[in-house]
């Protein structure tokens, strides 16, 4: 029994934001969760994701040859990145969902779908 329950719902950034806020409050960790600390924690977790891929060379999409435990580990480290990112945005007063949707629109204007890209720009 790992104490981890399966969650069967569509997870929103807002839901994760509130979960992280509760997690920090319950442990009296709000004073640790400053923007700079969270940024460093985020970068550290990106390093942990990189460690999983390092020395493997290019890997096919879907990771067909990976063991189940490797996939679980990757999911955990990607989650740490996401959770720190969500918390960092919250502590900076950024609405991450809104900001991301706006950025998608800017990307679409910059990189027009009507262009035929024969090489990466
Ligand atoms: N001050 C902290 C410490 C941890 N966490 C949460 C957010 C991350 O999802 C996770 C990170 O925990 P660890 O620092 O223990 O990192 P790992 O889980 O990656 O463990 P390890 O570094 O031993 O692989 O816990 C947090 O919110 N605030």
UniProtKB/TrEMBL annotation:
Instruction: Tell me the superkingdom of the source.
Output: Eukaryota
For the keyword Transit peptide, the answer is no
Give the UniProt keywords, A-Z: Cytoplasm, Hydrolase, Magnesium, Metal-binding
GO annotation, biological process? dCTP catabolic process; DNA protection
Sample GO molecular function, one term: dCTP diphosphatase activity
GO cellular component terms, semicolon-separated: cytosol
UniProt subcellular location = Cytoplasm, Cytosol
Asked whether the UniProt record includes Nucleotidyltransferase among its keywords, one would answer: no
Q: What is its EC number?
A: 3.6.1.12
Q: Which cofactor does it need?
A: Mg(2+)
**Which InterPro entries does the annotation name?**
DCTPP, MazG-like_dom
Q: Which reaction does it catalyse?
A: dCTP + H2O = dCMP + diphosphate + H(+)
Which residues are in the NTP pyrophosphohydrolase MazG-like domain?
Answer: 34-101
Q: What class of enzyme is it?
A: hydrolase
Q: Name one Pfam family in it.
A: MazG
Family annotation (PANTHER family):
DCTP PYROPHOSPHATASE 1 (PTHR14552:SF25), PTHR14552
Q: How does it assemble?
A: Homotetramer.
Q: What does this protein do?
A: Hydrolyzes deoxynucleoside triphosphates (dNTPs) to the corresponding nucleoside monophosphates. Has a strong preference for dCTP and its analogs including 5-iodo-dCTP and 5-methyl-dCTP for which it may even have a higher efficiency. May protect DNA or RNA against the incorporation of these genotoxic nucleotide analogs through their catabolism.
> Which protein, by its recorded name, is this?
dCTP pyrophosphatase 1
């Amino acid at each position: 029994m790992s104490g981890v329950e399966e969650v069967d719902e569509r997870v929103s950034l807002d839901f994760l934001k509130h979960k992280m806020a509760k997690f920090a409050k319950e442990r009296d960790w709000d004073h640790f969760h400053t923007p700079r600390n969270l940024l460093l924690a985020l970068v550290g977790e990106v390093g942990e994701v990189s460690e999983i891929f390092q020395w493997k060379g290019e890997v096919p999409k879907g990771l067909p040859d990976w063991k189940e435990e490797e996939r679980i580990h990757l999911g955990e480290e990607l989650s740490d990145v996401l959770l720190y990112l969500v918390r960092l945005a919250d502590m900076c007063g950024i609405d991450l969902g809104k900001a991301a949707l706006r950025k998608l629109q800017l990307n679409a204007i910059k990189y027009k779908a009507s262009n035929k890209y024969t090489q990466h720009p």
